[in-house]
Amino acid sequence: MREWWIHVGLILIPLLAVFLHIPPPQLSPALQKWHNAGDTFNFRGNNVFYRDSYGALGNVDIIILLHGFPTSSYDWYKIWEPLSHRFHRVIALDFLGFGFSDKPRPHRYSIFEQASLVEALVSHLGLTDQRVNLLSHDYGDTVALELLYRQVASDQNRTGHLTINSLCLSNGGLFPETHYPRLLQTLLKDYTYLSPLLTRLTTYRLFTKGIGDVFGPYTQPTDAEFWDMWTGMRFNDGNLVLDSILQFINQRNKHRDRWVGALTSSYVPLHMIYGPLDPVNPHPQFISLYKRLVQRSTVSILDEHISHYPQLEDSTGFINAYFNFINSF
Q1: What are phi and psi of 8, to 5 degrees?
Q2: Is 0.85 surpassed by the pTM of this model?
C-alpha cells in the first residue's frame, strides 16, 4: 500500500508542477523580429510594448492601431507596410495584459485603463498636440469609443488628452444586444471559481479551435499564424489573466450608453470595415443596427467569406477599404 502511494505521488508532483507553471512556447523568428523592432514605456509601474515606425516622407499624418482580444499588435503585420507608405508615422501597442506588454495579476483590467494607456503613449511620444487617426478591431473598438467619449467630453470643457482626426472600426462588439461571445469567454468571465482551472488548462489545441471558429472556412490562419497568436498570448503567462481581461464584456453592458452615445454624437469622420461571416457580431443584425444608429458613418462590407479578423483574412480588401475612407476627406 505504501509503495502505491509513493508511485501516485511521483506522478502527481510533476503534473502539479506543470499545472502551476507551464513554460511558455518559443517565439517564431517572425514574432521575435516584431518584438525586436518595438520598444517599451512605463505605464503605472508596468512595461507596455509598442511599435513606432516612420513612413511616408513629406506627410504629417499619424495612425494608431488598436488590436483585439486575445491577440496583440501583431494582428496588423499584414497591413503595416502599406500603412507606412501612406502615413508619416504608424504606431501600434499591446494593451496591458496582451502580447509583449506586462500582464499583472491580480489586476482589475478595464477599458478605461486601456484608454488611459493609449493617452499615456501619445504623451510619451510627444504627440499630444497632433491629430491622430485611429484604426481599431474588436476589443480595440471599445477602447477607441472611450477615447472618442473623452474627446467629446473635452469639447465640453472636461478632460481629454487625445485629438482624434478619424476613427475606423472593425468587427467589434459595439452593441451588447448584437454581441455573442464564445462559450469559453462566457465561462471565464462569469464563473470565477472555474477560471483559475480553465486558464491553466487552455492548451494550444483548444486555443486554435477557438480562434479558428471566428475565421472563415476559406480564410483559416496558417499553422505559423496560429502559433504566433498562441505564443503572443502565452508570453509572460498571459493565459492566466484572460478571465480578468474578459470583464470588458460586462463593462460594455454597463457603459453602453456612454460608448454608443459617443459614437452617435461625435462629428469625427467614422467608418466601419466589416467581415460579414463574423459569428461574434453576426450579419445582418450587427450591421443593420450600426447603420441605423450611426448614420454619419460610412461602411465597407467585405466579401461574404470574411469573418471576425478581416485585416488578416483579407488584408488587400481591408487596406483598400481603409484607404478609400481616409482619402475621402
Answers
A1: -60, -45
A2: yes
SS3 track for the chain: CHHHHHHHHHHHHHHHHHHHCCCCCCCCHHHHHHHHCCEEEEECCEEEEEEEEECCCCCCCEEEEECCCCCCHHHHHHHHHHHHHHCCEEEEECCCCCCCCCCCCCCCCCHHHHHHHHHHHHHHCCCCCCEEEEEECCHHHHHHHHHHHHHHHHCCCCCCCCEEEEEEEECCCCCHHHCCCCHHHHHHHHCCCCHHHHHHHCCHHHHHHHHHCCCCCCCCCCHHHHHHHHHHHHHHHHHHHHHHHCCHHHHHHHCHHHHHHHHHHCCCCEEEEECCCCCCCCCCHHHHHHHHHCCCCEEEECCCCCCCCHHHHCHHHHHHHHHHHHCCC
What distance in Å separates the CA atoms of residue 100 and residue 287, rounded to the nearest whole number? Answer: 33
Residues 203-258 have pLDDT tens digits of 899 899 999 999 999 999 999 999 999 999 999 999 999 989 999 999 999 999 99
> Which CATH architecture describes the domain 27-326?
3-Layer(aba) Sandwich (3.40)
